[in-house]
Request: fold
Amino acid sequence: MRQQTLGEFLAGTKLQSSPYKISGMVDTTCEKLCQIQLNKGQASNLQRRIHQGYRNNWELGDMPSAVIMSDGEGSPRRFGGGFPIGFVDPLDEETAYVFNHV
Reply:
């Protein structure tokens, strides 16, 4: 893992290495990284974080990850830093889903 910059330190950013193996220009199928069973407390915490809009923030080759976002058809597209860890069901706002594919 590389050293943090002063800006990362002051912002409270903590960089960690990822177990993902990412290659460009290579077609791959789904590969299972891990499978865990959450207890009720962990599941509740994860659901709360999804409702709060927590995001994965990756750096690949010192470039930040981003997703294209839009407020609907006809609205301008914009880029959001990182990508969400899940989403809330628009028909049932109590239900949250984890994005289990990266």
Notes: The two ends are 21 Å apart (CA to CA). DSSP finds two helices and eight strands in the chain. Helices lie at 6-11, 40-51. The longest strand covers residues 66-69.
